[in-house]
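check these C-alpha cells.
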Amino acid sequence: IEYLARAGFTVLGFDYQGTILSEGDQLGGFYQGLSDLDCAITYIENNYKYKEIYLIGHSWGAFNVMNVAYKHPTVKKLVALSGFLDVNQVFRDTIQSPLKFLSKGLTKIEETKHPEYKGTNSIIGLNLFKGKALIMHSTDDNIVDFKNSFLAIKDGVKIKDNLIFDEYKHKCHNITYTDKSVQNLIDYIFSLEHATSDEEISKLQKKVNFDSLCELDKDVMNKIVNFLN
C-alpha cells in the first residue's frame, strides 16, 4: 500500500469482515470476501468521482478481484497475485488424502451461505472483464497450486489480448518479496514450528529482523506500477 501511495495512487485498503479492525466475529467463508470487495468498490463509486478504479489482490484477494471486477465498469485494471481458480480447487488442493472428498461438501456450504456466488470461477470472471489484467504467480507456490490455478486460468480464458500472465520462480506465495526475503521467511517459520517452548519462540521473535522477511522486490513492484500507469 505504501509503495503504491508513494507512486502517486490513492489507495483504499480494508480488512475483511471478522478480521483485524473490521466488525463481525468470523470471516463468513471465502465468498464473504467477494461481497466485502463488491461493497468496498461501491463505496468508492458512491463517495468519490474517480473515473478509473484499479484492483490489486493477493491470494484470496486475487481470487476476489478476478471475480468482482467485471461487475463494475469503473474498474479498468486489476492485478492478481497468487490467486486461485475457484473455492473447490482450494479445498481440493489443501485437504490431505484420504479426506479430499470433503472438498465438495465444503464448497456446498459456501454456496449455501452465499448462493449469489455459486459457480464463481476466475476463468469466468476474467472472460467477462473488459479491462486489463496482470496475473502473477510463482511456480513453487506452496499455498495456491501453480498448475491448478495459474495454468488452469491461463488455459481457460478465451480472450487473452487484455491479459498478461507473468510467471516467477523462488517466490513461493509472496510474489512481491525478494527471493532472499522469501527464503528468510521460510527459515523463520521453520524455526518457529520447531521451537520446543514458548520461551524459545519469544526469543526468536525478539531476535528476528522483520524487514528482512518482507523486503519488497522493486522490479516486481515497478512492473505493477508501470502496468497501472
